[in-house]
UniProtKB/TrEMBL annotation:
Protein role: Involved in base excision repair of DNA damaged by oxidation or by mutagenic agents. Has DNA glycosylase activity towards 5-hydroxyuracil and other oxidized derivatives of cytosine with a preference for mismatched double-stranded DNA (DNA bubbles). Has low or no DNA glycosylase activity towards thymine glycol, 2-hydroxyadenine, hypoxanthine and 8-oxoguanine. Has AP (apurinic/apyrimidinic) lyase activity and introduces nicks in the DNA strand. Cleaves the DNA backbone by beta-delta elimination to generate a single-strand break at the site of the removed base with both 3'- and 5'-phosphates.
Protein name (record): Endonuclease 8-like 2
Domain Formamidopyrimidine-DNA glycosylase catalytic residue range list: 2-169
Lineage: Eukaryota, Metazoa, Chordata, Craniata, Vertebrata
Protein species of origin: Cairina moschata (Muscovy duck)
Signal peptide: none
Length: 319
């Protein structure tokens, strides 16, 4: 699943076309009426956690910040849009997937004056001025190029292509930048309070209410960097260990974003590895809250030893 750094890069690709008018549309999506986008102007591109929001206005509207437009003003800036129109992840589930994929209220009519919310699922992506080509034959032996969900051709001649993503209209991108690990407004105190809870830290790290944009890859890598066993309860960790884990989360996410902007790969130390960098055998398990979504987790038992509880026993988790 594309995580915060990937979606930030997608935003930069889309931002190149801000101010341009959509001349032609295409794609296989049935979630929205693509014709609603014809002759509209891309007014803004924002990212919140793992969601990309694109604002469209009528082509005749003057170019400027989306919140200056009478159709969009107030809602995006203050979060005061009608409750029946707000498009935002639910906050009550503890599951990363539900928090990211569901909206708390129904969609609004699409077209100029609305925001298009894009979620990239497990394999979604955006390309600018190029189409994705098949890298290998499918199960039938055909070399068939991936089918785009949406293609936006702009009057300038450039185009954006969206693959394997979910789209829906909403009135405004309601999100709290203080929970976004890549935001300058990220609230460390609130994140630390969440990590101190008596629950496995690998659960808390995927809670998008406190770590928006942090996904399974980041979770695995930063737990290894911080030398913390994934099932360790946060309440058993020293404050300095929690601070270090949070530092790793912010730094790793920032480094990953910078490597993506340079079109460079990032070498993972534990994710999907059989050995850690020190040569120790890596273990793999599927962990998640009871009744919730389970995620694959890799850890090194030697570098990330289990933390003993107050009675001298390793912490345990009821699945």
């Amino acid at each position: 699943m594309p995580e915060g750094p990937s979606v930030r890069k997608f935003q930069l690709l889309a931002s190149r076309f801000v101010g341009q008018v959509v001349a032609k549309v295409g794609g296989s999506t049935r979630k929205i009426n693509v014709d609603d986008l014809k002759s509209s102007r891309l007014q803004d591109a924002q990212v919140h956690g793992k969601n990309l929001f694109l604002a469209f206005v009528a082509a005749g509207c003057p170019l400027g910040p989306s919140t200056d437009n009478p159709v969009l003003q107030g809602e995006a800036a203050s979060g005061t849009s009608s409750p029946a129109q707000v498009c935002a992840p639910q906050t009550h589930p503890q599951e990363e997937e539900l928090q990211e994929l569901q909206c708390s209220r129904p969609d609004v009519p699409g077209g100029p004056g609305s925001w298009l919310r894009v979620h990239f699922g497990l394999f979604g992506s955006i390309r600018a001025n190029e189409f994705s080509r098949a890298s290998q034959a499918n199960k039938r032996g055909d070399w068939k190029d991936p089918a785009p969900r949406l293609v936006l051709h702009f009057e300038s001649g450039g185009f954006l292509v969206f693959y394997n993503c979910r789209m829906q209209w909403c009135s405004s991108p309601v999100a709290d930048p203080t929970c976004d690990i890549l935001s300058a407004e990220f609230h460390r105190g609130r994140a630390l309070d969440a990590l101190r809870a008596p629950r496995p830290v690998c659960y808390t790290l995927l809670d998008q209410r406190y770590f928006s944009g942090l996904g399974n890859i980041i979770k695995n890598e930063i737990l290894y960097l911080a030398k913390i066993h994934p099932l360790t309860q946060g309440s058993l960790l020293a404050p300095s260990d929690l601070e270090h884990l949070l530092d790793c989360a912010v730094q790793f996410s920032s480094d990953w974003l910078q490597s993506k902007l340079r079109d460079e790969g990032l070498h993972f130390q534990i994710y999907q590895k059989e050995q850690c960098p020190l040569g120790h055998a890596v273990m793999k398990g599927t962990f998640g809250p009871s009744g919730g979504y389970k995620r694959l987790t890799w850890w090194c038992p030697q570098c990330q030893p289990a933390v003993l509880s107050g009675v001298g026993e390793p912490t345990t988790v009821t699945e």
